[in-house]
Amino acid sequence: MALKKSHLYKYIWEACNQIRNGMDASQYKNYILTLIFVKYVSDKAKYDPYYLLEVPEGGSFDDLIKIKGDKEIGDKMNKVIRKLAEANDLTVVLNVDFNDETKFGKGSAMQETLSNLIGIFENLDFSKNRAEGDDLLGDAYEFLMKNFAIESGKSKGEFYTPAEVSKIMAYLVGIDKSNNLRNPTVYDPTCGSGSLLIKAVDISNNKKLAIYGQEREATTYAIARMNMIIHNYLTASIALGNTLSDPFFKENNSLKLFDFALANPPFSQKNWANGLDPENDIYNRFEYGIPPAKNGDYAFLLHLLKSLKSKGKGAIILPHGVLFRGNKEAEIRKNLIKRGFIKAIVGLPPNLFYGTGIPACIIVLDKEDAAIRNGIFFIDASKGFIKDGNKNRLREQDIRKIVDVYRHQLEIPGYSRMVPINEIEKNDFNLNIPRYIDSTEQDDVHNLNAHIYGGIPKEDIDKLHHYFQVLPSLYKTLFKTNKENKEFLDVIVPSHEIKTTIINHPDFKKFSDTILEKFHLWSKKIENNLYNISADTNPKTLIQILGDTILEQFENTNLVDKYDVYQILMDYWNDVMQDDVYLIKYEGWKNAAKPEVPEERKEFAIKETADLVIGKAKYKMDLLPPDIIINKYFAADKEQIENLQNEVEILQQKLNEFEEEHSTETADGEAPLLSEVMDEDGKISKKSVQARLKELSKNDIQEKEVLTQWMELYDEISKINKQIKQLQENLYKQVLTQYQALSEEDIKEMVINDKWMHSLEKNINDYIQKIATKLSTRIKELTERYEAPLSDIEKEVKEYTQKVKKHLVKLGIEW
């Protein structure tokens, strides 16, 4: 069975646990990533005879395993890793010291810690994943980057750009269309761990795309190099050094030019000009203005711009201040706008990044057609996110919406707009997003007359017109015109029945059927893609096709946001379907569905719950759960067991009521008849009842009768439970036999229809119910807001006033 992604994460995170107590995350990440790298390269070279990196004798992970428990383990680890480094010109990259007593302790402490560390990675087996192993370990590397960034805190989390933001930037510059270019290049001048570049290249799906990056921090540079190799981008050119003062990539004393450039530079860097004379910059990067001495935001933007070819496209993440700050930055901004270099601005949610909590924006630069550009496209995506721990995170639907809106230049009120340059000029070239897009939500204004006279204002219900366009006759079912004032409505359904009324209404049922029909049409469209999953399938391409098709299917669907439906698909893909597809890819349909022994590894806190238990034998069925087999082949057996379980529930209820009836004092104050067989917690056991029956004399007729009745009920429950257990075991045996008899076509049909499509349909149904909930909640809110007019409140006040007066008079107090 192929290594599961969730298990891999636990393995490597346990490695972090081995050393995290002794050092900061910003330090221990370097040791963990180095060991993963050595393990990966060693395995890759072992299984791939054409692998470009050399693993010399005495320089592999197997050599690390040999020195576990050695008294000189730290020094010997360094020597093994140095051999690997020297053989591949990676001495600057693999440059951590495992013999550091300040990090790993002295003597036996170091010996134990490092031995455990090697042992954890020793247990990682990529042999069955080597066909797609790069993706598996690459995702694990991404997982580590994210978690290291979280733990490193604000001051040291800058090395990682969230994958969601990286994906957006790559699409905004059109890197997925790089196949149209002859020898395309992509560049990141502040590449950190390389995560932004890797995501961009992944999206491009172009093996000819050449990668270039520069990073000033030596340890982060090392991580970037390892990251590229682990993702199998062995020819990526990553340089060490300060991009602004000493750019590495040059041609003929000028900056090398690229087709695409992406950057997430450190925000508002104060010492950006160290080692640099901006006024006499030999690369002429500051021809449109010199940034302020203590703020380098525009320095990075201008470097990025200068590094683009004549038709090059770039995207850079910067704080919102660059959009509106004055003085030198205002002058630079004006010059860039006038020359048409800024194509778009995307406002992102706050608290996305690990180096800062402030909101940021993406500025899209495009030299192609800059001379004739007459507008800038604005997107305010600041409200599209979910909370993820103490950070915010963009959802798949947020990413897709930004990209679609940008590519099709869709103008959506409160979200996106093409702003003419002349309008920007009238605003003194200020690019602050709220000047051009009003994304503020309208206040929910109370109507004073409605509070005085009662009834719901028609204008409030009119705001729900998009519901009643789809559900026209529901309007008359819920409302009637107020007799006193035709501008007000009365709700004619009790508040607690509003949601039920909506859900059961013919209009809503018709709407629900329409949505489900769209879903079924989509499932037919992508059916062949799913049935043809094989070793040649690229899972990332597959989900791209599924996502594109479902968006197309739900285009212009009333009351349904197609991006919500897209998110339903993506959530299920990430939670279940992705692992299933990779499993099928690795193992084939039949082997993937074969029952396996559940994995249990105490040292990694892995304990899989068995899906099927027969005696002492346990089985795990990830791809094809037993319930699907049972529902298809053994429905009658399942029904028989469920009927018996219902009988048990009824009998248990009777027993509970019987115990309650005879556990309380009688009317004449006598002790309860079951009191002698109860323990301290009020529980009754068969053993205690049997013992009490033996003690009773012939004269204790009433107590004997009660205990006998209790025993009869208890025995009946036990008898049926034994029957259920036997039937359950027989059913499980039949299920196991059935697994062996399944053909590949049987497995495909059940996985695709009975598992994937069934689950997705259920989730779509839940979404439809939420639409009803949203409408009913708003109507109930308005009903409760205006249900007590002023006259009723005044009447109630008078009644309570009279009651209070009467009580005061009784107390001899005059008011």
Mean pLDDT: 88
Radius of gyration: 35 Å
Assess the beta-strand content as a share of residues: 5-15%
CATH superfamily of one domain: Vaccinia Virus protein VP39
Tally of helical segments? 31
Low-confidence stretches: 127-134
For the secondary structure, the number of strands is 20
Oligomer: single chain
> What share of residues is helical?
40-55%
In angstroms, what separates the terminal alpha carbons?
86 Å
Q: According to CATH, what is the class of one domain? A: Alpha Beta
The main β sheet shows up as: 9 strands, mixed
Q: How would you portray this structure in words?
A:
This protein is an alpha/beta fold and 815 residues long. Among the domains are: 1-152, N6 adenine-specific DNA methyltransferase, N-terminal domain (Ferritin, Up-down Bundle); 159-437, Rossmann fold (3-Layer(aba) Sandwich), CATH 3.40.50. Helix content is 52%, strand content 10%. The strands form 6 sheets. The protein has a 9-stranded mixed sheet with strand order 3-2-1-6-7-9-8-10-13, sandwiched between helices. Strands 14-16-15 form a 3-stranded antiparallel sheet. It has a two-stranded antiparallel ribbon with strand order 4-5. Helix 11 links the parallel strand 6 and strand 7. Helix 2 (25-47) packs antiparallel against helix 7, helix 8 (163-172) packs across helix 9 (195-204) and helix 14 (396-407) packs across helix 24 (562-587). It is globular and about 110 Å long. 33% of the residues are buried.
